[in-house]
Amino acid sequence: MASQTTAVPLRAGILGATGAVGQRFITLLADHPGFKVQRLGASARSAGRPYGEAVIWRMTTPLPEALAAQTVVECRPEDFDDCDVIFSGLDASVAGDIELAFLAADHCIISNAKNHRMASDVPLVVPTVNAEHLHAIPAQRLRRGLRRGFLVTISNCASVGVCVAMKALEAQHATLGRINRVNVVTMQAISGAGYPGMSAMDMLDNVVPYIGGEEDKLETEPVKILGALSEPLLLTDLVVSATCNRVPVIDGHMASMSVGFARDSTASQLDAAAATKVAVDAFTNYQTLASTDALSCASAPRPPLHVLSSADRPQPRLDRDRGNGYAVSIGRVRPCPLLDVKFTVLAHNTILGAAGSGVLNAEIAQAMGYLTRREACKH
Ligand SMILES: NC(=O)C1=CN([C@@H]2O[C@H](COP(=O)(O)OP(=O)(O)OC[C@H]3O[C@@H](n4cnc5c(N)ncnc54)[C@H](OP(=O)(O)O)[C@@H]3O)[C@@H](O)[C@H]2O)C=CC1
Ligand SMILES: N[C@@H](CC(=O)OP(=O)(O)O)C(=O)O
């Protein structure tokens, strides 16, 4: 496998560059050794204006000067012909059609939007969970008549931490049994709703027990992410019950999870304390392809999962930036009287939950040989 860092960085286009996810892409790519921001796309409202004027910059690091001066373009494939990879942070109301137009023009697209996540030939990849699903790219190219392009999607931001935890437990399935039931209650940050998102009057001194469409995604996406790679991508027998809440936190989605293992497995032989100990070991020892030296991905978190022993952790403000926002934190691992084991998980929703997964997926796709310079692909 090739190293992801090339002498000449790959040129990146960002669709939805003015949004919460688009801004995060810009910060993550600012000093990236393997990618350079080439083109910034947004709606007709922003197009034609310098990015620094079109955007309401909400990142805590300064907007790079060269990008502030760059003119925003509309999201048309022909305006991105000099880009090797396209990162999409488009609003879901327009992402579906725009991304298909880019795919038809043989672009390599990595999307945060929900529109194509469940299509059978589209990999839905949490890079620290199921990077091997990127090997579905050749079948997708064949099916869609693409030469170098592909469409890869990133999961819902609340699903990432949940999936990392489940994948770690699955690594111990010979002892614990297969996960077959999960109850998850999320506490999701305000930035998940984009900028400006919900009003301060709605969010301060409050918790909102509803996020439109979120519970459906949390109940379906992990089933695909944890499924086996095949054509089409196979689903597992997992059942997830989700309840989603919006809480007054800026960044960092937290989730309380209870997990049950298949009754006919060896897990039923373990008492609750023993199963909990195996779960802690599984979390502590979790390794992922992206974090191995074999791929040498610049953004891969090492370790990908932090197990916190303090009784009051993880907390969004204190723990969301672990691994530069690419690592997941888990704490309060304990027996569950209803299912088997319960715990609390935290992931940064706009880094591992969105733009960061986009960047890391691109690094992995490049290391696997699926993402190359546009002119390097001989037709
Ligand atoms: N925020 C998060 O934590 C996560 C978000 N996502 C997903 O990522 C995507 C972006 O989310 P987020 O950044 O929060 O959203 P924002 O609302 O903050 O940004 C949306 C972006 O889409 C652009 N846009 C809107 N309409 C058009 C159009 N007709 N043509 C071209 N561009 C358009 C906007 O440009 P303009 O400024 O010109 O209007 C803006 O750049 C969404 O699909 C979201 O569901 C996924 C995971 C997590
Ligand atoms: N709905 C998520 C963010 C998001 O946009 O997710 P998705 O891309 O799955 O629609 C949140 O509010 O936190």
UniProtKB/TrEMBL annotation:
<keyword id="KW-0486">Methionine biosynthesis</keyword>
<keyword id="KW-0560">Oxidoreductase</keyword>
<feature type="active site" description="Acyl-thioester intermediate">
    <location>
        <position position="157"/>
    </location>
</feature>
<dbReference type="InterPro" id="IPR012280">
    <property type="entry name" value="Semialdhyde_DH_dimer_dom"/>
</dbReference>
<protein>
    <recommendedName>
        <fullName>Aspartate-semialdehyde dehydrogenase</fullName>
        <ecNumber>1.2.1.11</ecNumber>
    </recommendedName>
</protein>
<dbReference type="GO" id="GO:0009086">
    <property type="term" value="P:methionine biosynthetic process"/>
</dbReference>
<keyword id="KW-0521">NADP</keyword>
<feature type="active site" description="Proton acceptor">
    <location>
        <position position="253"/>
    </location>
</feature>
<comment type="similarity">
    <text>Belongs to the aspartate-semialdehyde dehydrogenase family.</text>
</comment>
<dbReference type="InterPro" id="IPR000534">
    <property type="entry name" value="Semialdehyde_DH_NAD-bd"/>
</dbReference>
<dbReference type="GO" id="GO:0004073">
    <property type="term" value="F:aspartate-semialdehyde dehydrogenase activity"/>
</dbReference>
<dbReference type="InterPro" id="IPR005676">
    <property type="entry name" value="Asp_semi-ald_DH_pep-lack"/>
</dbReference>
<dbReference type="GO" id="GO:0050661">
    <property type="term" value="F:NADP binding"/>
</dbReference>
<dbReference type="GO" id="GO:0046983">
    <property type="term" value="F:protein dimerization activity"/>
</dbReference>
<comment type="pathway">
    <text>Amino-acid biosynthesis; L-threonine biosynthesis; L-threonine from L-aspartate: step 2/5.</text>
</comment>
<dbReference type="InterPro" id="IPR036291">
    <property type="entry name" value="NAD(P)-bd_dom_sf"/>
</dbReference>
<dbReference type="GO" id="GO:0009088">
    <property type="term" value="P:threonine biosynthetic process"/>
</dbReference>
<keyword id="KW-0791">Threonine biosynthesis</keyword>
<dbReference type="GO" id="GO:0051287">
    <property type="term" value="F:NAD binding"/>
</dbReference>
<feature type="domain" description="Semialdehyde dehydrogenase NAD-binding">
    <location>
        <begin position="11"/>
        <end position="137"/>
    </location>
</feature>
<keyword id="KW-0028">Amino-acid biosynthesis</keyword>
<comment type="pathway">
    <text>Amino-acid biosynthesis; L-methionine biosynthesis via de novo pathway; L-homoserine from L-aspartate: step 2/3.</text>
</comment>
<dbReference type="Pfam" id="PF01118">
    <property type="entry name" value="Semialdhyde_dh"/>
</dbReference>
<dbReference type="Pfam" id="PF02774">
    <property type="entry name" value="Semialdhyde_dhC"/>
</dbReference>
<comment type="function">
    <text>Catalyzes the NADPH-dependent formation of L-aspartate 4-semialdehyde (L-ASA) by the reductive dephosphorylation of 4-phospho-L-aspartate. Mediates the second step in the biosynthesis of amino acids that derive from aspartate (the aspartate family of amino acids), including methioinine and threonine, the latter of which is a precursor to isoleucine.</text>
</comment>
<dbReference type="InterPro" id="IPR051823">
    <property type="entry name" value="ASADH-related"/>
</dbReference>
